[in-house]
Design a protein that fits this description.
Helix content: under 10%
Strand content: 35-45%
Radius of gyration: 29 Å
CATH superfamily of the largest domain: Metal-dependent hydrolases
Number of strands: 60
Length: 867
Amino acid sequence: MRRKSMARRCIVLGLAAAFLGCPPHEDYTPLIEISPGAAARGCLIPSHCAPAAEPAKAARATVHVLRPGEELGGPNAVGRPGDLILQNDEVAFVIDQLGSSAGFAESGGNLVDAADAKVRKDELGQLFSYFGTFPRQGVYTEISSREAPDGSATVTAVGRELYEPQVRVTTVYALQPADRALLLTTTLENRSDHPVDGLSLGDAVQWGGAEKFAPGKAVGFRGDSKGPFVGAIGAFTSYAITSTEGEIVCQSGGSWTDTFQSKLARLAPKQSVTYTRVFLVGERPDSSSVVSELIRAGGGEVGHVALKLEDANGGALPVAVGSKAVFSSEGGGDLFSLVATAIGPTFEGDVPLGKLRVRFEGGGGRRGLGDPVPITVGKSSVATATLRASAAAAASFSCVQAGTTEPSPCKITVEGLGGTKPPDFGPAPNAIARNQVSTASGRARVPLSPGSYRFTASRGTEYEPVVREATLADAGLYEGTFELARVVDTQGYVAADFHQHTMLGADAPVSTESRVVSNVAEGLEVAVSTEHNTVADLAQVAKRLGLDKHIVHLSGVEITSDANRAPFGHLNVFPLPLEPNKPRGGAPVVRDRLASDLFTEMLARPERPILQVNHPRSGKTGYFELLGFDARRGVGTGAGYDARFDVLEVWNGHAAEERDRVIEDYLALLRTGHPVTPTANTDTHGVVGQEPGLPRTYVRMDDDRIAGWDASRTAALVTSLRSVRDVVLTDGPFLRVTTEAAGGKPRSPGAVVSGKRVRVRVHVECTKNAKVEQVDLRFASGAPTLSKPVLLKEATRKGEGPSAAKVLSADLVFDVSASADDAFVVIGKGPQTLAPLAASPIGDMPIFAMTSATFLDADGDKKALGL
């Protein structure tokens, strides 16, 4: 280990080691040492510090306008012809063209793709400048590129700060001939005569399909971090961003990180300030690739390792793609991983120097055996180790419709039993990820290490899950066929999720194919694409996959006002046709407009789309929070509040407490004569832990067939949401409710029922993992809630074969008296959670279902509360 003066900065790297200053001599921790002022010298990347020399012709960085056929591959690649591609023999980066933007970036000129130059598979969402208060950033209006005689290449984007047009922002992306790192230099110049306060210098990184990590933090962590870097690991590559000043402060959320390199007290008139950082692309999807590159970037040295596998008897084993070794310190703390990217007798790569221990973690259907093996990594030779592993095992799944051989889309959840670890099939944003396998074909085969497992097959909320347990021996193969029976009767309704995200909006990591497949596996029938300020349409993806017989994808947009000086929250608009030749697919311009302006624009469109207020109580993105909703009057008091929305998103994802508060807002709207339709949606930005359709909205449709769906049925869906208002919000149970006065016909939710005394009949159906224990009637007037316990009974549906699972159901009757016009909703709930069919946090939610309101006309004038 190298030791320098205490005046030098010590940066401790390692997945399990946080930055705590220079470590004790006896502890192993790989170091990067960066002296203050490194940014000014531009010496973080070794080639920037080397004497100028004419590079070999084969080692040059190039930049040119992306041509058709040159686009990067990978699940998150969005670069298209007209963008700029900056590359060398090691890495490739795409900076999007002017007039183009996605997600929360307000212009082109930002980094949207990054990949190894040989693999060419991108997993990055995007990276753009971030000035301390979201979404302050550079908005670029000029872009240029240059290839220099020294073999380097640059892209320069010039524009202004989002809120301060007199602050000029210039970002230079520089790539050297042989580096795997992109040097980003941003300069802010205040050209005005007044000071600018409140800025800090950093970046907003949307990690896309890669999962973030940092020293001392678990993969996928959320919250604050401070240290030498923050990075992310995907299925094909890895990334990291670091400051040239040696430390980077970050705040991270689900799939994003905001970095803070320095805070400006004030940018004085005519003053300029510059900050520099490095964005790395690893050779492999592991942390050692990133750590080693960072050490080299800091002027340090690394070594090389080559690892072999053997069985319990010492026989050689082939290395499979995805095989993973974990290196730890001699004291036992895990430091970094090495992942195989090719089949062969060994897997190898550069790692930090030192005395280490290494173990086989698994992959390719194998599990590690025995204790970690000591290994000493030096700089002058290849360090080798042989790791013991089990023989490879696998599992093969087939889901069919009960009583038939017809394949059924499904999801298989795999749990370890008796000390067996659950599998990790890869990053959470994918259809096959963590311990879940979503398959639209009903068939899948996955490598699975020997051990004991529980396999649960499911298909959303209407099918009874099927559970199997098995033990896999070395070289074993589990073959399971799961007969899935649709036991919950939802005839006359379609299962919908009106709020979903993918990589098309940059802030979600999910590929379009994984989104469609996971939707089908969860039994959804209608899904709406709602990217931030970007119109998207997955209908062609579903058609290409042959899944349009199972699901309808409608195009839409989530109007997002975060970039406004006075934001008003988020609104979904659907269906809204995709216009691919227009910026952001034809989405409306949002920045610095009032909500009422956008309502007027959208309602004037010939499609007359649905307007849905999203997560209205979500703090700084909530419509009701930002525009001062007054429950007593049922209106907002803020500038631009508009009550012309059709739909209120009462339930957003796993936010159960927020849901309960929005239910009160919904009842307030009813009470004050503003009838709207409630919905439950996921707002999913992922797959595992953000399972689509949990929760979901069942919408009344006279024709509930999905096959042959056309524009007339889309229009019928819009009419149902806007005018019929008969919906069920649920994460499991299904409620059928009718209300009738003496001598009258039974009416469904959304209707007006005349009479001072009415009878309410509630029919409950659910699977065994979604049991309802209580049903409540909640009244808009604030009248006392009526509650009854639920005694579920098991029954087989008439006409179903002996292999069909049985449904749990119950029937309840409430007699209701009303002296004045009122409205009520029916709520069913139980203590069960969705685990293991959904991962945390979705899997932690107790069972809940709610109908839309039925309106009571007590005075006999055929009207009630605005209807």
